[in-house]
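This section describes the prediction task in plain terms. A model, or a person checking by hand, is given the sequence of a single protein chain and must write out its three-dimensional structure as a string of C-alpha cells. No templates, partner chains or ligands are provided. The sample shown here is typical of the held-out split.
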Amino acid sequence: MESQVRGGTRWKRFAVVMVPSVAATAAIGVALAQGALAASFSVSGQSFKVTADRLDGTGFSQYGALDEGYTLKGEKTAHPVAVSAFRDAEITNMCQSVVTPNVPIFGSVSLKLTAGTGGEKVKAENLYIDVEDLSADATFRGIDIGVAAKDAGKGPGMKGGKEQANPYGFAQQADSATLTDVKQTAWATTAGTFKLSNLKMSLHKGTVECY
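The expected answer:
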C-alpha cells in the first residue's frame, strides 16, 4: 500500500547544541561524524530549523507529545510536538540552524551546521525528531493510520525521557517513508547513532538560518 501526501502539516505551538566553547563544539562534531557518540540534541528554550533535500527512512512512526524544557531565563516550559521516529534513516544535503538572541556584546549569534553533501549521506539509527512545523513532499509505504502510540511497532517505539505522550493516543506508522524538499522547525532530536558525513559548522553574528 502506498500513500502520497503533498504540502505541509502544521503543529501548533535534526539538531544542534550551543556550547560555550567552539573547540568543544568541534570535538563533539568530529565524534558524531565518526559515529562515535549516541546523539541527544535539544536547544533549551529555543526551536531550531532543519532542511534536507531528501530523507529516506524505514520503520516509521509518528505520534503527538509535549516536550518539557526551560526557557533561556530558566523558566519551565512545554511545547506541543509531533514526534517523527525512524528505525533507520539516510539524509541528503542536511542543514540545521539555531539563533541565540541577546548575546552580550554580539547581539544575536547563529550556529549553522551542514552535512550529507558531496554524495555521502547522513545516517541515523533510532532517530526521533520532535517537530513543531513541517513541509515536504512525502511518500509512505505500508502505512497504518489511527493506531495507538504504544502499538506503533514498525517504528523504534516511544521515546520517553522528558517527553509526555499518551500511549493510547493517536499515531500512525509505515514500513518506509521518503520525504523530499524538507523544511521543518523542531525542538529536539534524539538518535542512537547519528553519523554526519562532510560535517561543517560555522558561527555567525546576526541571524543566519537554513530557511
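For orientation: Confidence is low (pLDDT under 50) at residues 1-28.
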